[in-house]
Design goal:
- The protein is of the alpha/beta class.
- It folds into two domains: about 200 residues, Rossmann fold (3-Layer(aba) Sandwich); about 270 residues, UDP-N-acetylmuramoyl-L-alanine:D-glutamate ligase.
- The protein is about 40% helix and about 15% strand.
- It has 20 helices and 17 strands.
- The strands form two sheets. Strands 8-17-16-15-14-13-12-9-10-11 form a ten-stranded mixed sheet, with helices on both faces. The chain has a seven-stranded parallel sheet with strand order 3-2-1-4-5-6-7, with helices on both faces.
- A hairpin with a 5-residue loop joins strand 15 and strand 16.
- The mean pLDDT is about 95.
- The structure holds ligand NAX and potassium ion.
- The site of ligand NAX has 29 residues, from helix 1, helix 2 and helix 3.
- It catalyses: (6S)-NADPHX + ADP = AMP + phosphate + NADPH + H(+); (6S)-NADHX + ADP = AMP + phosphate + NADH + H(+); (6R)-NADPHX = (6S)-NADPHX; (6R)-NADHX = (6S)-NADHX.
């Protein structure tokens, strides 16, 4: 955002103009509340400046506004000093802010410039504001929240009802716990020129169809089932076949032309009792010759597979050819603490790893946790093994080894259920088999998975997800 600020100024939109529009957006959100008495908490930087602008506009709209300033008002610099000069109403020291009978609080203490934990008067004011029960509108970010990581920087952090942010969402608005601390998020256009925003070359996006839809191939009327891509799924052993079956069903629903499950005869008999459109093939001596002869475009290894030598061999055979590989579940037990081994196996091939947090730590180590954010951990891991990482959770991050990443916000809580991850693995393979590039296929699969869960609602079990995909795909196609 600092770069956007600079580029905007170079294109004739100075910081003061951006600040005026930012303050307007905050005042606009405040006017949604029937609030008479409003306290604006103003910090020492441009976030405080936005607060002063909002205070002026709200006073002009006949609200009773008091600005409570952290530190010395005379120490304000630049645009913030100018914004403060435009405020002629009552001002108090932050220490003296009175939260009794306040109808609304505007938190303009710190935004992008937060650099250390809240302490002293700032921390006390946040706690008192929180305790008084009035609704809180945060300017840019709730004070105390790191907009890059989505984590509070210290022990004290504002929890807002509404967060008004500018130009673009920041990762911390979507990653947890940030998303929960922000409340409802309002994204305001404050007039930064599109070229100034584009000049930054951001490589992280909220996971939405606009990011990937052009990369997902449309089936051709002249196509046939094999031109739509063949997916092979490595089956779990007898009495552990459900997970691989869910993957196979999802791959077919995602539009793969054909899907084959390979496993032992005993396992295939279980599959046969459930499946019709999915092909079954006994894997007598591994599956290498099948994968090669049947021109398999994408494979899934891991769901229900068990961390056995057979699974390792299946994975090695899968990685040996020119095909895309989705690795899930038991693969991460096989490569516990051995990210380098996994990276060697992937080599120059195209792979997607779909760990949840526990599996991620198993492979990449406990210290992977201390990296700055979920986003950066996933990006670092992707670069380390040379694959796309899908780090699952309520804020699933898809990170490519080239630095691109998406963050999802559309998964409902009831998607955290047994087997949902197996469905996701199959979805990714189904899209990749049709030729979608790996990063886009993984991002699309994550979004579709969330939408399918939303379409089902409460009571969802993973078995329902493949059947919910047609409606979601149909509405995506007609958007
Ligand atoms: N394009 C842009 O960059 C725009 C930025 N705007 C606003 O500018 C904000 C960023 O402004 P700044 O970079 O001035 O940063 P902030 O206003 O977020 O805070 C920086 C100031 O706070 C101090 N500080 C940081 N952590 C502290 C702590 N824990 N305790 C006490 N003091 C602390 C710093 O020393 C610095 O003086 C954004 O969040 C947004 O609200 C808007 O005015 C609109 C345009
Ligand atoms: K703030």
């Amino acid at each position: 955002m600092t770069e956007v600020d600079r580029a905007s100024a170079a294109e004739g939109v100075p910081g003061a103009a951006l600040m005026e529009r930012a303050g307007e957006a905050v005042a606009h959100a405040a006017l949604d509340y029937a609030a008479e008495k409003i306290v604006v908490l103003a910090g020492p930087g441009a976030n405080g400046g936005d607060g002063f602008v909002a205070a002026r506009l709200l006073a002009e709209a006949n609200r009773a506004v008091v600005v409570a300033v952290l530190g010395d008002r005379a120490a304000l610099r630049g645009d913030a000093a100018q914004a403060a000069a435009g405020w002629a109403g009552p001002t108090v020291r932050l220490e003296d802010a009175d939260f009794a009978r306040v109808d609304l609080i505007i938190d303009a203490l710190f935004g992008a410039g937060l650099s250390r934990p809240l302490s002293g008067a700032a921390a006390d004011a946040v706690l008192a504001a929180q305790a008084c029960g009035a609704p809180i509108i945060a300017v840019d970010t709730p004070s105390g929240l790191d907009g890059a990581s989505g984590h509070p920087i210290g022990d004290v952090c504002m929890r807002a009802d509404v967060t008004v942010t500018f130009v673009r969402l920041k990762p911390g608005h979507i990653l947890l716990p940030g998303r929960l601390l922000c409340g409802r998020i309002v994204l305001a256009d404050i007039g930064a020129p599109a070229s100034a925003v584009a000049s930054v070359g951001a490589r992280v996006w909220l996971n939405r169809p606009a990011v990937w839809r052009d990369a997902i191939p449309e089936p051709s009327i002249a196509g046939h089932k094999y031109s739509r891509g063949h997916v092979a799924v490595w089956s779990g052993p007898e009495l552990q076949t459900g997970a691989s079956r869910l993957s196979a069903l999802a791959a077919l629903r995602a539009g793969a032309g054909a899907v084959t499950l390979l496993g032992s005869k005993a396992a295939l008999k279980e599959h046969a009792a459930h499946l019709t459109a999915i092909m079954l093939r006994e894997a007598e001596d591994g599956w290498r010759s099948f994968l090669d002869q049947r021109k398999v475009a994408a494979v899934v290894v891991g769901p229900g597979a068990s961390a056995t030598p057979d699974t390792r061999r299946a994975l090695e055979e899968a990685c040996a050819g020119d095909r895309r590989v989705v690795m899930d579940a038991d693969v991460f037990s096989l490569f516990a603490g051995d990210a380098e081994g996994l990276g060697r196996l992937i080599g120059e091939g195209e792979a997607v790893l779909t760990p949840h947090e526990g599996e991620f730590k198993r492979v990449f180590g406990e210290d992977a946790d201390v990296a700055p954010s979920k986003l950066e951990r996933a990006r670092a891991a992707a670069a380390r093994v040379g694959a796309t990482i899908v780090l699952k959770g309520p804020d699933t991050v898809v990170a490519s080894q080239d630095g691109r990443a998406t963050i999802a916000d559309n998964a409902p809580p009831h998607l955290a259920t047994a087997g949902a991850g197996d469905v996701l693995a199959g979805l990714i393979a189904g899209l990749m088999a049709q030729g979608a590039p790996v990063f886009e296929a993984a991002s699309a699969a994550v979004w579709l998975h969330g939408e399918a869960a939303n379409a089902i609602g409460r009571g969802l079990i993973a078995d329902d997800l493949p059947g919910a995909l047609p409606n979601v795909l149909q509405s995506l196609a007609s958007q």
